[in-house]
């Protein structure tokens, strides 16, 4: 099979017939063998009934239904496991991405031998409240990940070589950073393709609001630390810990010796504990390193927990 199209969706019933029909037309025109894997991420509209109806008409459609909403990353992860095609395309269900891009994406993977091709919505039809934070994210992600040739990490439209999706694990909200995950997994031939973008035709966005900003930033930090230091945490924590310890020790030694000096010279001296700065420094150092360590330990635990990819799958067709 040439292509598996994976579509994560949450309450997108109105878009699905149009989307699948459009994909079918493109596939037919280029004579690709394909499947469309629709992952219903616990929709509470009638998306699943629509998928069942579409499956009756088009045998290339497959469906996976979560019992509840887990988020786009979970939907992608489960969709990736189910793929059988040599090239895997992901796209959003909301008709903002155009299936017409698929042949060119396919060509880049199969002929130019790229591992991952990420769409770049050079002209984007979303409100400013989305596009400005996205710009910040993309530049932070570029510099932290060392992938300098991508403008747009979080585009829903992407193409992968089969091996990539079978070897990365998209969990939490990590769908924003799939190129980074791919790079850490050793798939370094990454490029981008300018893609058409349209305004949302039906339904509403599932990713608005301020939370997106904070969570996205924290995810970026954790992906960076996990990628860089999870195999050698001592290099990071050891350095940081030693520096903290030596600084603290230095300050204390200095305070003690200056007090001893004052005593020896019969000068009026001050208690070490009278110095406000001493407490502030102490608390900040301890709190900072503790918080960081806790975050890291939690991240490691969550990655190793056997339950992390147990999603409740209700039905499959
Ligand atoms: N989506 C999902 N689970 C969720 C939220 C969103 O599967 O919990 C899907 C959604 O149906 C769409 C895609 O992820 O197909 C992108 O979502 P959306 O279009 O709302 O995001 P935006 O384009 O506004 O960033
Ligand atoms: Mg969208």
Give the uncertain stretches in residue-range form.
none
Q: What's the alpha carbon Rg, rounded to whole Å?
A: 25 Å
Give the ordered list of helices and strands: EHEHEHEHEHEHHEHHHE
**What's the architecture of the largest domain in CATH terms?**
Alpha-Beta Complex
* Total separate domains: 2
Helix-strand layout with pairing:
Blueprint: E1 3-9, H1 16-30, E2 34-40, H2 47-57, E3 61-66, H3 72-82, E4 87-90, H4 102-110, E5 116-120, H5 128-145, E6 158-161, H6 162-167, H7 178-184, E7 190-194, H8 211-229, H9 233-264, H10 276-304, E8 313-316
Parallel strand pairs: 1-2, 1-4, 2-3, 5-7
Antiparallel strand pairs: 3-8, 4-6, 5-6
Write a structural description.
The protein is α/β, with parallel strands linked by helices and 317 residues long. The chain has two domains: 3-229, Spore Coat Polysaccharide Biosynthesis Protein SpsA, Chain A; 233-303. Helix content is 50%, strand content 13%. Strands 7-5-6-4-1-2-3-8 form an eight-stranded mixed sheet, sandwiched between helices. The longest helix has 32 residues, at 233-264. The two termini are 18 Å apart. The protein binds uridine-5'-diphosphate (UDP) and magnesium ion (MG). Residues 92, 94, 96, 200, 205 line the site of magnesium ion.
